Amino acid sequence: MQAAAAPKQVVRVFGREFSRRRLSELSLLLFMLPAMLLVLVFVFVPTIWAIVISFTNQSLIGPNARNFQFVGFDNYVRLFADNSFWNSLGLSFVFVFASAFLGQFILGLLLAVVLRRAHITAKGLIGGAVLLAWVVPEIVAVYVWASVFNFQSGTANQLLLAFGFERHRWLIDTPMLAIILVNVWRGTAFTMLLFSSALEAIPDELFDAAAVDGASAWQKFRFITVPMIRYTILLDFILITMGTFSVFGLVFAMTAGGPLGRSEIIGVYIYRNAFQYREVGFGSAASVIMLLINLVLAVVYLRLLRIEQGK
Amino acid sequence: MRINALRFFDVFGRAGFYALVLFFFVGPLTWLLLASVNAMPGFSWAIPETFTLENYGELLAEPDLFLWLGNSALLAVGTMIATVVLATLAAYPLSRVPFPGKTAFMYILLLARVMPITSVIIPIFSIAVVLGFVNRFEGAILVFTAMQLPISVWIMKGFVDSIPVELEESAWLDGCNRLQGLYRIVFPLMFPGVAVTGLFAFLAAWSDFLIPLILLRSPNTFPIAMGLFRAFNDLGNVNFGFLTSLAVVYSLPSILLYVFARQYLVKGMTAGGVKM
Whole-angstrom Cα distance, residue B219 to residue B231? Predict the structure, then answer.
């Protein structure tokens, strides 16, 4: 009250006039500094840094760690000639498509739809079970699934034997299938939660009216549910795609990319080159390719958000 | 007849689907729990012939347990406090003060959220070397905090937006400055936001594997994740009783905290101003 009644005091800063009130308001922006500094130093600077380093021959240790030189596009030329890079990029796409789209997306959506009208006990029990797999720490998930896939006495092979099949070498013959299964196990909860809350926003009357008109379950899903959650579908798809691209610990601890690179997704490829072969410059070139792919996805994501906020 | 068949499929199809889901999602975890109370634990899924709590007893006698537990707790609590304080401080002016380019600023912040960490891990290591942060908890905490901040600021801003500025104005009239008003009036009112961002930060640091792998290289600084990883990769010498009981102890805080925070999960996941 008092401030509003007082005569406006005006201060000149850099040739522009500000009221004292506005100036003190602007000074609040200083509160943002520590957070912004951290994000700058550990998120944005590393991004730029990765790009710069990708044009050098920097190594992790040794003389080239400090006295590195710019080598132009050498790293990229080498990268694009490296079969194991294309292998890892291809495996990353397989990993993302199979575990994010075929696995998490379809299973998560199915769970959300089925649980929407389920009994409260089923909702709590089944929803809780899916959530449980999501919340255990990554390394525990790896450890638990290593037991499932163990050749001699793992649960997966026990089941195969019980049904009259031979033992299968999960981590050696089908390492991609193994890491995809584990990632579906871990990640489905996210999609399920996202769709559960989106489905709750659809009024029951719509389904009741459709039922009166004799619509089948599939027709209800196709003509009511899908149009109502169209936006959530896109949002979920982009978020889980980006999330799956950055999976690292799970694969690294489970198969370390092996055997012979047959489960080496891009994150593991970067780690191997930068931290095991100590070629930081070369590894960064692979990072930059990964960044570019994610940037395209991120731009689509931000556009979607803006469209939705503009409504 | 047709109706009966449909009903049959509805009831039994549903039950079958539930059974499969339970089997797939809970089955692997039951192995962990059962092995941890088995006197003869191994890779196979088995109801123990002799139940025992000895594995947990052995775990308690292991000096590394308290080192790792302490390190993990330090990382998680440090990250939680830093994230909550810095995110609140940043969210407040973002909510209250109009300035040009604010929308663009918020979206750029969101861009930081979706940056895959594996693609920037090399420079993060280099920066940590330059700043002397390798094998230091401060370094890991700051990196975790930086990773959590973008999404936390978004969540917190939403909560500050929902608190009427009039509540603060009366505090200012009573002689509070903006900072005092922030922590006496706004902070307590946005407790759900504080809880959810704090929890996410705690759990992210508690469960993470990549940052310790890169930054915490000395065994003295290992959190539980690294301890488990090293012990498990010690092939030919896997002590199942120790590992399974440690994994259970390690998972418990995460599970309990999520149970507590289940109602806030969706809000936190979709922050970014998504309307559902």
Answer: 12
Query: What is the rounded end-to-end Cα distance, in angstroms, of chain B?
Result: 41
Per-residue model confidence (pLDDT) at position B276: 27
* Predicted pLDDT of residue A151: 84
B197 touches B265 (CB < 8 A) = no
CA distance A107 to B200: 25
User: How far is the first Cα of chain A from the last one, in angstroms, to the nearest whole number?
Assistant: 35
A153 burial level (CB within 10 Å; 0-12, 13-18, 19+): middle
Task: Report which DSSP code applies to B264.
Answer: G
Interface test mutation site (partner B, options A13, A75, A136, max chain B beta carbons within 10 A): A136
Average pLDDT for A132-160: 88
The residue-averaged pLDDT of A178-194 equals 92
Lowest mean pLDDT among A108-122, A272-286, B199-213, B235-249: B235-249
Q: Output the pLDDT for position A260.
A: 85
Test A287 with B26 for CB contact under 8 angstroms. no
Output the six-digit token pair for B172: 């200012």
| Any A CB within 8 A of B215 CB | no
Residues B254-272: pLDDT tens digits? 888 888 777 676 665 655 4
Average of pLDDT values for A290-295? 89
Q: How far is CA A43 from CA B135, B195, B198, in A?
A: 20, 24, 20
Three-state helix/strand/coil letters over B144-192: HHHHHHHHHHHHHHHHHHCCCHHHHHHHHHCCCCHHHHHHHHHHHHCHH
**Whether A144 and B28 lie within 8 Å, measured CB to CB:** yes
For the CA atoms of chain B, what is the radius of gyration?
24
- Tell me what the mean pLDDT of segment A163-182 comes to: 90
- pLDDT of B172-183, one tens digit each? 888 778 788 888
In this complex, the residue of A135, A147, A311 whose CB is nearest that of residue B43 is A147
Q: Give the closest-approach CA distance of A261 to chain B in angstroms.
A: 18
**Nearest partner of A131 among A201, A196, A199, judged by Cα:** A196
pLDDT in tens, A25-37: 788 888 889 999 9
- Here the tokens at position A200 are 């709750």
Say which residues have a Cβ less than 8 Å from residue A16's Cβ, sequence separation at least 6: none
In contact, B190 and B84? CB cutoff 8 Å? no
Q: Which residue has the tokens 């992210």?
A: B204
Q: Per-residue DSSP letters for B7-68?
A: HHHHHHHHHHHHHHHHHHHHHHHHHHHHHHTBSS--SS----SSB-SHHHHHHHH-HHHHHH
Contacts of B275 in chain A (CB under 8 A): 308-309, 311
Q: Evaluate if pTM is beyond 0.95.
A: no
| Chain segment A226-236, per-residue pLDDT in tens | 888 888 888 88
Contact A179, A95 (CB under 8 A): yes
**3-state percent breakdown (helix, strand, coil) of chain A, nearest 5:** 75, 5, 20
Copy the structure tokens of residue B57. Answer: 């007893």
